[in-house]
Amino acid sequence: MSGQKTTGLQLLALPTSFGKTYSMCQAISEYVKDSCKAKRTIVFIANSKKHLPADELKKALGKELYARHVLLLTGRVDHLKSVVPILQNEVQDKFKDENFQNMLQLLQQPKTDDNDAQEIGQLSYHLIEKVKAEMKNDGIQGKENIRGAIKEKKKYKWVAKVFPESTIDDFDVILMTTDKLLKASACITNRYRFLSEEFIEDKIFFIDEFDTVKEKITQSLIEEREREIIDLVSLYKDIKRAVKDFRHTKYSQEWQNALDGACRDILENVNDREKDMDKMFNFYLDYKLSEEYAHKDRLFLFYGQDTISIHKMGLVDVLARKDFHVRKNVIRCIPPTERTTEDKNDIDVGEMIRYINGHISYFKKFFLYEWGVNYKNQINSKRKSRAESNHEESYELITADEARRTMIHKITEAQEKIRFLASDYWKSSISTDKERIRRFNNYYEDGFRYFNFKDSNYHLEETHF
């Protein structure tokens, strides 16, 4: 805070009641009041809401400056419960549909269990989508224009009170719990993760109880990674089935019209590539580990662009051989020095993964892109014609990303596969997601790559943030 260092991590290690929180609040207060400085947003992280210094900062800054400069981000349900009067009195009737009424009813219950909280979250997302659609009909698009409408237009001023993340860039200090930091946040302007380069870049972080917060973040990243593991062979087969359906389309007229000449050419190319890969890698048979490795926990995974072996056996070649007795391609791990002439016709699993990844990338970048644009145009044209014939003043448009989402759900219902297929299109994804798919570090290293940590037990000058 002194301005002598622009990066790095400083650990303030003092016993309880020695004034750590008070000193930090005074430093933050001085920083906010000093209008001569080029401001960097301050983010204060604590493991629980009761450890966030909202009251202390309010005393240090005064109510007026606190309201103008500090944003306290709590859980979505807790916050919505606190703004029920605003939902009742300030939200226009056009937004108060059945979903809104159901959400309001749940928020007014004395107790909220996990199922209720999940439903409230989903219903609040419906409200967000309804506001976004209304803004689109009003010709309000783009992050800056949306933020401007929320600040200036009476119709939308309630949005900042109900969804405070929508105006997060207007505040100099943000207080949030570790749980909030780790979760995705849906708001009117966009949907993003706080734990991302986009949010973290060029900010000053105060972290209460650093070691416990660090441990919680690392554990969360480990669990998230396990959820995101993708069997690429399975995804390849999902796409293959979908391509067959697209080529012999059983879908609506809009789907067929979206398959214009260029799109059909790409689809035929995808089909030809799949035929070649089926011959090269025997995809008409499933893959399985050989019995000698079957007892190993997660010995082999089809993950991202890599073939991963998680057991301590050194460098090996991962090969697969067709076994007619079990009607499967059986995977074996062989040190290069032990390979024989019999192995030369085996399938190189690393090469297979590279082929699959290239094929999926081609499908995403060319077919999904081309089809999404075409389908969007088909749907919007149809809606425009219907609105004109019915003399309607407005109608809802869909985006190319929403069109691609429709197709991706036809390909697979597995959430980790949907996120993988959508990652190049939806800017809300964490920017490091694609890096995580490409590389496999140990869990500790993978978690800390999010922060560019160089960790040391001595902290202070040896730990760089």
Please tell me about this protein's structure.
The chain is an alpha/beta fold. It folds into 2 domains: 20-208, no CATH class; 232-288 and 349-445, no CATH class. Helix content is 51%, strand content 11%. It has 20 helices and 12 strands. It has helices spanning 20-33, 54-61, 63-69, 76-82, 84-89, 98-107, 114-137, 143-152, 158-162, 178-182, 197-200, 210-228, 232-247, 253-258, 261-281, 349-389, 400-411, 415-422, 433-438, 443-448, and strands at 42-46, 70-73, 173-177, 184-186, 191-193, 204-207, 286-289, 300-303, 306-309, 317-323, 328-334, 347-348. It has a 4-stranded parallel sheet with strand order 2-3-1-6. A 4-stranded mixed sheet has the order 7-11-10-12. A two-stranded antiparallel sheet has the order 4-5. A hairpin with a 4-residue loop joins strand 10 (317-323) and strand 11. Helix 1 (20-33) packs across helix 2 and helix 13 crosses helix 15 (261-281). The model is unreliable at 295-301, 303-314 and 426-465 (pLDDT under 50).
